[in-house]
Amino acid sequence: MKLKFKNLSDDLQKVRDTAPLVHNITNYVVMNNTANALLSIGASPVMAHAAEEVAEMVTLASALVINIGTLSKEWISGMAIAMAAAHEKGIPIIFDPVGAGATEFRTRTCLSLLERAAPAVIRGNASEVMALAGDCVQTKGVDSSAAASDAESAALALAKKYDCVVCVSGAIDLITDGRQTMRVRNGHALMPKVTGLGCTATALIGAFCAVNKDILVATSHAMMVMGICGELAAAQATGPGSFQVHLIDAFYNLNAEQVEAHWLDPEAK
Amino acid sequence: MKLKFKNLSDDLQKVRDTAPLVHNITNYVVMNNTANALLSIGASPVMAHAAEEVAEMVTLASALVINIGTLSKEWISGMAIAMAAAHEKGIPIIFDPVGAGATEFRTRTCLSLLERAAPAVIRGNASEVMALAGDCVQTKGVDSSAAASDAESAALALAKKYDCVVCVSGAIDLITDGRQTMRVRNGHALMPKVTGLGCTATALIGAFCAVNKDILVATSHAMMVMGICGELAAAQATGPGSFQVHLIDAFYNLNAEQVEAHWLDPEAK
Amino acid sequence: MKLKFKNLSDDLQKVRDTAPLVHNITNYVVMNNTANALLSIGASPVMAHAAEEVAEMVTLASALVINIGTLSKEWISGMAIAMAAAHEKGIPIIFDPVGAGATEFRTRTCLSLLERAAPAVIRGNASEVMALAGDCVQTKGVDSSAAASDAESAALALAKKYDCVVCVSGAIDLITDGRQTMRVRNGHALMPKVTGLGCTATALIGAFCAVNKDILVATSHAMMVMGICGELAAAQATGPGSFQVHLIDAFYNLNAEQVEAHWLDPEAK
């Protein structure tokens, strides 16, 4: 498979034309940034976690983003109900196992949620993906202690187990459906210095999966948008604070010319 | 009634001189922005939601802002207790029914809270106001699927039902007490591209109601401040990320000259 | 005792070289800013509050930050468990009693938590520190109604009671272990106009206590970094919105030359 910048630009235009509703059950740290990233790229975010309403809310949505970054018992039932409702309606679920491997509670909760409803995409860092695959690895809080390439076999195993796309983000993002594997090389060294950009990536994958049923391609497009906008933001930034501001602006202003100019062919094998 | 920019500037000065405490029970997405908007305009924000303390906290405050944006069962009792305490003490309640109409849980919770203690102001988008008035409308997550003008009869009905001011924000904001209706035309197209600026407006209404007992005027002043500062921010911004930053700066720096220069007479009828 | 800018720069370098994990149980308003401040200074933040995982998470960490800014019953047990685990492992606890004195619930919760596990550092504003020491003072929401110097005897009393360092932030920060008292004069008038910079200070104290076992010195270094970066940010800012952005950039870019150029000898007695 070969990605083409024309297709990415077309998907971006579809997001802007249709403003798909992306339902997020995510962590406290990133809610504001996630919502702003989705709005800026052209999607329509909603944050709702109560067990009483998530099934109703998710049926309005075109994608469901589940992110366990500030997990607590009270939120798990809302996540489980939303995932079941999304699964039943065929709404793609994007799952972000923040901090899996750091504590038994996180790893166990992820595995339990994934049993209930298979996601379209799992996006995590290398440590998180390895933890879900059962590899012995210690996540340092929510930061990875391994490179994305270290998690390749774990990613392949997870992709096969859940019949989903697995995206391991890192300096080079690895995206696989268990058969084909893409490597996205766009991005910038400032990105891990801003909290929650992995969570932003997960949310953008939701927006792109809402407009493109080829989940491997949609995920790759979202990760390229992250990387390209990261490069655009870094060119303006003087540190992680201004980077975050410019990144949101970059999502909003991203056009086909910028996509073409920053295009680095994702290696595929 | 005719608004005058001199009166708006006087109210702004009162906010800065007295730094009224505005007690917020609001959603996770906007807490940081809301607090910063209140601080920048000159008020003093506090966020507290626990049933154990809200009655005590609200008696220190000059306004209570209730916003159901990330509603859960656990928060409803805190909201109800705070509203009852505010009502008893004569502290104005500003109510933001985020996402009413999107789910039955939100609509029902709003109506139940409003039954317990009438607010001074309800501020929502057109879909939310129509949902509260019992109109058949589907809110798309938390974004309106209708223009403010579509909600005029719903706003009038709500204003009469709760004997309060209703503010429907949109490209043209509609503000009514059921007898007089103001239309505020200030603002900028980037504003709906930043998450939670409606919530920011609700919080600013709290600050202005804290210093002006004429709730229709105070609400109109707050919405004009939002609109004028939005115009000032847009003149500096290159997208929604930088817009949010400049908006906070604009609140902080807003002066009488800027108010006069950006004044668009609100139509009243 | 005399602080030296060389030692501060060395501690800063140690933070960057070792990226200590700082475990935060903090409030919703500041989570994003706190995480970004820690990342920018070179530390590695994690936010986790669930009773099910905090004991496991804190054992991975080099410091524990407890901040009661948006307190609720459900969070108290997580705080208590984390503090007990940190205490047992000798991990320094930095305690931020946000809004103590504003409500009985906050004051009582703080005192109860402090009974269970003595912190390395308590950092609050003057009202909060006075409230914990049992002085009759009314905190206005979360803002101080007193100057740091008013809280000196309260700070000394608390430092002796819990055998810890107490940091009272204000225009001049007062830092005492009950024997020696430092006064940090760096900072800028815009800082109280940005929400949660006290919370940011608390988190940075965590990062510096993670690399320097002399808690009085580590706390003073963190407060000087806050003050110096505040001055650097203010030189670029046009209001509180841009100040916050530049502050994060300043943390990231801070170097020995800037520390030396902005150095104001903390008075010690």
From TrEMBL, chains A, B, C:
One Gene Ontology term of the molecular function aspect: hydroxyethylthiazole kinase activity
Keywords: ATP-binding, Kinase, Magnesium, Metal-binding, Nucleotide-binding, Thiamine biosynthesis, Transferase
UniProt pathway annotation: Cofactor biosynthesis; thiamine diphosphate biosynthesis; 4-methyl-5-(2-phosphoethyl)-thiazole from 5-(2-hydroxyethyl)-4-methylthiazole: step 1/1
Enzyme Commission numbers on file: 2.7.1.50
Cofactor: Mg(2+)
Pfam families in alphabetical order: HK (PF02110)
Residues annotated as binding ATP: R123, S169
Catalysis: reaction(s): 5-(2-hydroxyethyl)-4-methylthiazole + ATP = 4-methyl-5-(2-phosphooxyethyl)-thiazole + ADP + H(+)
Domain of life: Bacteria
InterPro entries membership: Hyethyz_kinase (IPR000417), Ribokinase-like (IPR029056)
GO biological process, one term: thiamine biosynthetic process
Positions with a binding annotation for substrate: M47, G196
Family label: Belongs to the Thz kinase family.
HAMAP family documented for this protein: Thz_kinase
Primary role: Catalyzes the phosphorylation of the hydroxyl group of 4-methyl-5-beta-hydroxyethylthiazole (THZ).
Protein name per Swiss-Prot or TrEMBL: Hydroxyethylthiazole kinase
